[in-house]
Amino acid sequence: MTEDYRHCDTEHLRDYPGCFEECGHDVCTGGTLVAEVKPISLLDQIKEVRGARLRLEVAKLEKEQSFTEWEKANTDLLQEVNSAFAEVTTSETLLRELTVKAYNETGSKTPAPGVGIREVTKLEYDPKEALKWAMSHQIALSLDKKSFEGFAKATPLDFVEVKTEPQATIATDLNKALEEKK
Questions:
Q1: Taking a C-beta distance cutoff of 8 angstroms, is the pair 119, 126 a contact?
Q2: pTM, whole model, 2 decimals?
């Protein structure tokens, strides 16, 4: 790539969407990828991720800008949708109330065309009593994994093995990280 294209920012990418500093891609006009070179090193992959993030940032920005313009151009339509939604919600709530009332009066599960009654079993109980019962019967118990692991980290338990595993992190600003490397 020429020196003119080495520092790709959001504005530059709008004009040259395929241009990324040492991204590992051969680029034809218009930014269409002609051949993709598979990363062969950690540094190559860092640059690949940086380029992918930049492309995502540009796409999100363009989407947001386009959506904002669409919202401005369609204010009346959006207001109409919101009004219609509120009307449907209110109407459906009243229809459900009238359907339940008709069911209570007639016992019919199909009191009118297009509406029906589904009988749902609901349980009401004191959660403390339910836990007490579950503990005494040793059933219906589940482990709160997050709380247990927090406790196990703070207080060693003989049946818990504590291991340290490496977990990769990726800098949010790869441009800055790569600049510092130079």
A1: no
A2: 0.54
Q: Are 108 and 102 in contact (CB under 8 A)?
A: yes
Place of tokens 């040793």: 138
Residue 61: partners with Cβ closer than 8 Å, 6 or more residues away: 10
The answer to whether residue 177 sits within a structural domain is no
Question: Where a domain ends, among 17, 42, 73?
Answer: 73
Per-residue pLDDT tens digits for 90-129? 999 999 999 999 999 999 999 999 999 999 888 888 988 9
- By residue range, what is the domain housing residue 139? 76-153
Structure tokens at 118: 């589904």
Q: Are residues 27 and 86 in the same domain?
A: no
Place of tokens 């009401």: 124
Cβ-defined contacts of 11-18 (< 8 Å, 24+): 13/54, 13/55, 13/58, 14/58, 14/62, 17/55, 17/58
At 141, list the tokens.
Answer: 């118990």
Q: What gap in Å lies between CA 172 and CA 181, rounded to an integer?
A: 15
State how many domains the chain has: 2
Quick one: 12 exposed, middle or buried, by C-beta within 10 A (0-12, 13-18, 19+)?
middle
